[in-house]
Structure formats: C-alpha cells, structure tokens
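pipeline: protein-struct stage 2 | run 1193 | Salicylate hydroxylase
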Amino acid sequence: MNTSVRPPKFEVAVVGGGIAGLLCAFVLSKNTSIEVHVYEAAHQLSEVGAGIGIFSRVWKIIEELGLAESLLPLANNEAALTFHMRKSDSTEGLSFHDMNDLGINSVLRCVERAWINLPGTIMTFHRAELQQAILKWLPSSCKVHLLKRLTSVDEPDSMDLPVSLHFADGTTATCDLLIGADGIKSEVRMSMYRSRAAKARSQGKEEVADIWMRYLRPVWTGSVAYRGMVTKEQLMSLNRGSEPAVCKRPMMYCGSLRHVVGYPISNGNIVDIVAFTTDTDLEGAPFDAPLVSVVSNEEFVSKFQGFEQEVQDLLRFVDKPTRWAIHTVTPLPSFVSKRIALLGDAAHAMAPHQGAGASQAVEDTYILTSLLTHPLCTQETLPFALEIYDRIRRPLANAVLEGSRRAGFLFDFNLPGLREDDIMQKGADGTLRPSMEVLRQVGQTMDTIQEWIWKRAVQKDRECAITMLEECCSRGSLRVD
C-alpha cells in the first residue's frame, strides 16, 4: 500500500497575524492541499484598538465559513441598530437621521437577532476578542511564526523559483504565494511597488518609477482621532441609573469639523469612543508628531467644547485617551503581482468613517480564498486567480475607500451645500436654527454613500470570480475578460 503523503499543490505565506491574516489562514488551512504559514512581527498575537464593526452582509460570510456559532456570543447582544445621527455641536443636540434605516429599526425592536438578515445593520465586537476566537479555530497544520518582521521580498520572474521572504532577525522563508495582510504600513505592499519602480528605472522610465513610489507609504488625511472606552456603569451613574442610548446602539454625534462616534462592545458593557477633529488644509501633509500617543483627558475634552451634554458625559470618563493620526493608502492600481496578493489594510487602508475596513478585509478574504481553494487553482494557474481577485475586489474596495473619505467630510458638515453655514439658517425672528431640510439631505447623502452595502452582494462577486477562473483555465490564457 502506498503510504506516501501527497505534497501540497502550493505553499502560502500570510504576512500579518491580525484578523484579516488569521481569517485568510483559517480558510486556506481547511484545504489539506494547501500548506499555510503565518508570519507575525510581534511577540504575541494581539490587536491594537478596541471596537470593530461587521456589516450584516459580511456576517453571511462568517456563517458560510462555520464561525458564526463561536463568534455570535462575542457580539453586542442588543439588536445592532443602524447608526443614529445627531447634530451635537451645541448645548442642545438634535436627532435627524438613522443611517440606512430602510424600515429596519421597527423590525429590530420586534424580532430578536433580526438584524443578521437585514441590510445596512452593523454588529460590534471587541477587536481582540474576535481575533482570539479566530485564532482558536486555526488547525495545527497552520504554523504561526512570531517575532518575524518582514524587511524585503524577492519575487523571481520565473514561476519555477519560489518567492523569498527576508526577516529582521536574519532568517528567510520561501513560498509559492505571498499574501500581504500586514496592515497600513505593509512591507509586502512596499516591496511590491519598490520592485515595479526599480524595473521601470532599469528601463529608463523615471516618471513611471516615481508614480509607483507614490503607493509605498500611507498619507495623512488631516484628521486625528481620539480613542477611549467607558463602562456602562460609569455612564449610568450620570444618568440616574438608566441605560444611555449609546449603550444599546451606535451613535454618531456630528459637528463642524468635529464628530464623535460611540458604540457598544463586550455585550454592551463597554462603550467604544472615537472622536475626530479635522483640518482639511492638512490633507496629504506630513504628520510630524508620533502617529499614536497618549494624551490627557483635559486635552481630549477641550477639543469638543460646546458639544451637547450627552457627548460631554461620554468623554469625561475616558482614562488616558490615545490620539491617532488617521492615515490611508492611496488607491492602488493593483492589489496583486504574479504571486503576491494584498488584502485588508495592506491593500486599501481607509478612514474609519463607514466602519467598513474590517468588513472589506473579510470580503477580500472570501473572494481570494474561494479562488485559491478551487480545484482549478494550481501553481501554474495562480496568476489567473490573482488577476481575477484584483479585477473583482479592487474597484469596490477603492470605491469604499473614497466613500469613507466623503463620509468623514459629511459628519464634519464639510461637503459643498451641506456645511455648517448651509445648515444654520435664520428664522422669521432672526434667530439661527438648524434646518431639518438640510440635515435630512446630510442623512440622505450618507445613505447614498453606503448604497454598496445592500446593492451589491459579495456572493454574486464570488460566483463571477469562479466563472472567470473556469473560463480562463479552459482557454489556457492569462487574459482575463
């Protein structure tokens, strides 16, 4: 009897042990013909930041992957309503819109867990809890290597030679396919575009090389975000023992060039707070201070003076808030090369104003792994699969990236026709008051920005990707129509 072990059809290296990288490794490792290694720079797997949002459209992917049963208990156990928007930059706030409501809220109040199957809703998790849950599901066949900071990548032109990874500790590794899930400062992305620039220079194309170099590093948006958490008990102590709205549903407190986001995590026991200030003149400028720093509560609160009391109560309890300079990736012209694929923030790090970064990373993983685990995907057809992944995912992901930028302007009342001066109008008595008509336009504009959530199903994208792979393989051509 032949007891020899069949070699894998290809070896995959996933750089980055965050949620996107681990989820990708989990899905690929379920296919016994694919050997998977995860390389993480840190000494342990831990996520930076607290809250994370998952749209209901992406939850269907989680169910399909068999992770729903273990992840659902980690979600906020209240009905995950859509964001409620208020104009909050005055002592008396004003509610004006439920984002992407579509009649959802009335249903959610009547049917437990109804949000799972409704468009536009969002469920919130503690980021580290979600990461650890996925980590537990990794099979023993998937090897995780810690303290492996990638410094460079060599991708030979010949498909017969492996991709080489070089790490800061002097070690190397090889693979047939490299997946860069290493975040906004992705070394995989930088290596990929440095290689393109070097090739252009070798051909005397200096202008082309300069263009490629623009995609290496993230750029500052002109915004900073103050992050922190408060407990439900702290907020209830100010609310005469009753539960504030922000403990039960996501809230968006809008103001001129400032806005505050609050939403429940850890089963509603903690409220995650992200508060933004923006100077639009600084978009694209260098950020000379540390990208992340701890600031005093006094600095934090002072940035939002004049906001309604509900917001002041949220901010006052934040201990040691952190200030983050919000950077994004310039929309890339490609997420792939012949044997390298980028996903998540490495491919399309976006401003957090749609809460879409995590969901987009899951969608990347869904499409990419569906192609890689297909029987027709082999070492020889890998370039087919990666090109199809890029054709399917890049246009939507880049559109969501740009939409997130516009959403930030919208929440700051800083889009043409929807600015503070447009909103505040004189009444018959000469007093300035918010115009509900203009505020409704703000809400409707946000719904338009987020139409992708319910108008385009990722499952249809998967079907299209598989069909393209089958057609490419039947033709035996690298051309993807």
